[in-house]
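Usage example:
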Amino acid sequence: MTDALLALEDGSVFEGRAFGARVQRFGEVVFNTSITGYQEVFTDPSYTGQIVVLTAPQIGNYGANEDDCESPRPFIEGLIVREISSIASNWRSEETADRFLERHGIPAIAEIDTRKLVRKLRIGGVMRGVVGPGDANPQDLIDAARRSPSMAGLDLATRVSTRKRYEWTQPVSRCSPSERLKDAAPPEFRVVACDFGMKRNILRRLVHSGCSVTVVPAGTSAEDILALKPDGVFLSNGPGDPEPLEFQVAQVRKLIGKTPVFGICLGHQILGLAMGGKTFKLKFGHRGANHPVINYQTNKVEITSQNHGFAVDADSIPAATVDITHMNLNDHTVEGLRHRSHPVFCVQYHPEAAPGPHDSHYLFNDFTQLMRGNKR
Amino acid sequence: MPRRNDIKKIMIVGSGPIIIGQACEFDYSGTQACKALRADGYEVVLINSNPATIMTDPELADRTYVEPLSVAYAEEVIRRERPQALLSTVGGQTGLNLSVDLAEAGILEKYGVELIGAKVEAIKKAEDRLMFKDAMRKIGLETPQSMLITSVEAGFEFAARIGYPMILRPSFTLGGTGGGIAYNREDLVEILERGLDLSPVHEVLAEESVLGWKEFELEVMRDLADNAIIICSIENFDAMGVHTGDSITVAPAQTLTDREYQMMRDGALACLREIGVDTGGSNVQFAIDPKTGRMVVVEMNPRVSRSSALASKATGFPIAKIAAKLAVGYRLDEIKNDITRQTPACFEPTIDYVVVKIPRWQFEKFPGAEPVLGTQMKSVGEVMSIGRTFKQSLGKAIRSLETGKASTADVLLKELIPQRLITPNPERLSYVRFAMENGYTVDQVHEMTAIDPWFLRQIAEIVEYDRVLENHTFESAGKDLLRKAKRDGVSDNRLGRMWGVDPLKVREKRKELGVRAVFNRVDTCAAEFESFTPYLYSSYESECEAEPDSRPKVMILGSGPNRIGQGIEFDYCCCHASFALREFGHESIMVNCNPETVSTDYDTSDRLYFEPLTLEEVLNICDTEKPDGVIVQFGGQTPLNLALPLKRQGVPIIGTDPENIDLAEDRKRFGALLDKLGIPSPANGTATSEQEAIDVARRLGFPVLVRPSYVLGGRAMVIAYDEDTVRRYMREAVVFSQERPVLIDRFLEDATEVDVDALSDGEGVLIAGIMEHIEEAGVHSGDSSCVLPATSISPNALDTIHSYTVQLARALNVIGLMNVQYAIKDSTVYVLEVNPRASRTAPYVSKATGVPLPKVAVALMLGRKLKDLGHLTGGYTSGVLPVPQYFVKSPVFPFNKFPGVDPQLGPEMRSTGEVMGVGENFGEAFAKAQLSAGTPLPNDGTVFISVNDRHKAEAVELGRKFTELGFQLAATRGTAAALQAAGLKVKTVFKVNEGRPNAVDLLKAGSLKLVIYTSTGGHSFSDEKAIRRSAVMYRVPCITTLSGAKAAAEAMVSRRRDPIRVWNLQEIHQKLEMHSAQA
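Running the assembly step on the lines above writes:
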């Protein structure tokens, strides 16, 4: 029955049943604790280079559909689950999750003791791993895991970014006739969004809030961005370590003070670096949809969607110029920053959700407000 | 916002007796609230009429009032105690209603009491159907369209708008009587005409049908700073149309994408904010059309609910405790998560397992009630299980039910499949599986049940794997096969049955192959943070997180799902055992599978195993924990059934030896023991065939009491006045065997029944209570009211009872608790039965005497002697404990949920709960108990009396008393003649078949205020059944025994004489201490 293996760099091997594509892949093994939203996880480009373990044990139940894709294809290197559903049951489903992964060449393993694996990652930190066939020599897979590149220092953002500039016009659409969703605001602001591995729901949310969005590649210079005469610049989420992104940090530094800037996740880390801070790698990251974050401006708690392995170091933030606006209540890491004198703010978590709670949608309005204020 | 300092004293309203729809989940919530508030330094005043609860323990509140949950008594408590605040949200619907009533009566204002948790406006907005719909419309949430209809024409108009099917509910009929679903115009005319006629206000609520839609619930919490979180999502296995309390439910929701789930989450939070529940937990129910995704809000509960208890146990997030803290001003982010210690309570639990809840029904106890599930809840309890997958969890949940049958061993009939699938019923889950075994596809079953295909596919896979298993033999089964079977929740029992071997052999083999249960933790966070609370469930994963301690430890086996005859009383005992073990320096380990209980709170015991109470699962835990002792005498029949098998596997049972427990249940051996001791018991015999039964009955002489062996709650027990009844019983009513014969006793008519609870160390015996039953022998002890102290038993008889009890305890070498039932007839004391275990009355006696019986029992089980435990027993180490006042325990019946069932009391227990009344005299205590039990006695009007000839003389005496009290009398011919002959004024009323207006008509018209109708013996005739049933239907108190009627008369006397007065347990027990100090 064992026809797939997961080998970790620490020498441990987990046996399970293969589904998705039957290929061997390596990656950093990380876990996500969200109960819903596996398809959004598969297709979030921030998971580039990572094999994802889902803690929710029953995966694939509601299948997969085009609307819930966060990008054109899955970006995870591999998927590890406790159990995969053989059928898809949902009115919006178009195919099974198994078929979706197979079609996109993503290997997956079911019937793994994911809890044991997660405990290992929590205690030992994230590790490199390899998903391989059941008849492979486990030691070969372990060696392959040990040989695979580490995430630290890799520029993955450029790799997954769009090659060409494009316009995005689609707002958020309803998933049910009963969904309470305000009508999209008419386009009022011109926003240039730097794609470091952007999730589509950010684009949809920006459009919904009244932005016409031009998406530009990760390697676009500040001059080229400003030449587009934006009302504001958005810095997207994306995979991997922010530190190698020196070019992007330098461009963002040039944007500060010239135009309103809003960053999410990797965009937040780039802003953090651009504003003089430092970043560091978290032991096992934050990946889930239940992270409590306090907003110091409102003194209210938001339940947030998160997906990051690196974070901005609170102590490195120059307090004279930058305010920490949001903090994670679980581990007290930085979740949001705001420049004291320029219209620049960013959050580490994902206000666009997808997957996750919608508590932080207000940030998109904060961005348009900021642009509106700046226009006057 | 830290805690409020302007409040010092908080009153908590409990939920009263256990009834269908309101069970021990509110003991869980009330207990958590009491503990949380006291831990924060608040003084807590509690009112709850249910003595079997943990929350009414004198240690849990500063002032504990076991008093009726009525405005008058609650006001008296408020007047005495002057609390600054009243917490309205932890006492179920009863607590919420009483809070609103107190507010509306101006009492809260009068005494300056602030309602905390939910304000009256919010409660009304959530509870009033029309206000709720308006509120939802305002925030853009849909509700099913509905309209109040007063004519058939209006029905047609509405149908033209919303189409068929349409749900119709007549207003103000009991249990929704007369309602139905109209699938077409003809149905509509028929149901509407009937409904309009049945409704006293000629009104029917018509509603758009969402039958067959997917049903979900979200548990929501909010603090005063408007931080709001979802604790748990729950998906119903059964589609809309089955009450959520009667649905199999699964957590977390399984078939929603993130988009859809977030839509629901947004809706739930918007709902909570719009309704305006300031703080605490609420629950919002949704339905989703599986074809289009359209979503409607079904309802919201602005309080802690049954689902909150389930969600708490399912996630490890203590909703009631947090709700109490939020009510006094804390913010969610100011409260720590107990389990992770590092992270705040302001987060949304995530779980890496699947939770399944299955309700437990007992239609078999209510002949005449149709075993069909609908929009009114009928289940009496529930089980929850935790597994790594749905399949595993489902298998464990089915085992937890203890229905006495394996999941596929029911008598299922192929020809019934379509009907049993289409109409929801208690057996539907079995039929789903059976249908698939018989070739039905997932699509076909979905078509008939509307159960989501994902769930059905899971069951189909179980059935498919069964085939694989069946193709193997015990010998050929290898590690992978067994591992998969165990991971999918297949029991050793089932494998054993399949392969024709002893399940213990299967266990042995799989353990040898390394297929062993491990234990995973419930940690609120899917292992993202370390867990500090050993809240565990078994799985067949590869890593065990139990981390057992090496301290001396004792394991307590709980009582499983609530059912009639085995309910909260046993959870009370188990919890106390746990508290006592801690106090005595032992680690306490709890095993139970009932999510409603206090025992399954992770902080009740040092370690909690949320597991089915089966031999397999308990042995698995013993393998890991290696307890020094296992307590089986507190959880009712469930753990007792496991005692001997566990002992045989070398598990150290402490307390009374399981062999002696068995002896007490074995008719022949026990009879021999009684003979040896010279203690009389009703003549009796056993039978394993119809003829044998007839022979025994003839030998004993009629009437006889016939029952199966090894049951609790008088299941399938009848009093037979003739051979026909015995024959019918042997043919239809019971399954019996050589090992489990039918027991037949000579029935002692009109005897006084007595219940005795005693503590014993094998030598010393302390009698905790001698309870005199109000109803005569023949009424099940659980269905009889009783009083402490006994009021009419002669000193001689009391001495005899004392002496017999001591002899029995010694003879059975009872270590711990023992309960004996006696009957006194013509001044002879007979032993009816001995139960060497905690009884249903243990909590009641504990509260009346101030002596914590389970705690003392644990000390005895740990080897201490009674003579050394005087500090726990008020100084008494032998004899009988004193009681300083009158304490009446009365049962509460679910007859209003089962229209058509005869409420005549008998040997089969049917009450779901109990209340206690406290008084200076018997009448006062009984009156309070009746009020609490929901059958308040009238102050004036007409009393209807009908008794059999044997009781005519007593009826005259009773009639005279009622006349003196100012009541009018009405009676059927025979009784009327007797009353008239004695010079009483009485109106003669027709029996149902004699003409009109008859007694039923008068009941319907509201002309009768109290019905006293005793059985004529033998078969109950349809006429008297009709009258008693009508009394239930029109909510007129109906007393079915003469002794009960006499007690009622005394209660009415007290009502005229005694003022409204209340006592708290603390002052009562203090009185006792003074008493014992003087002694």
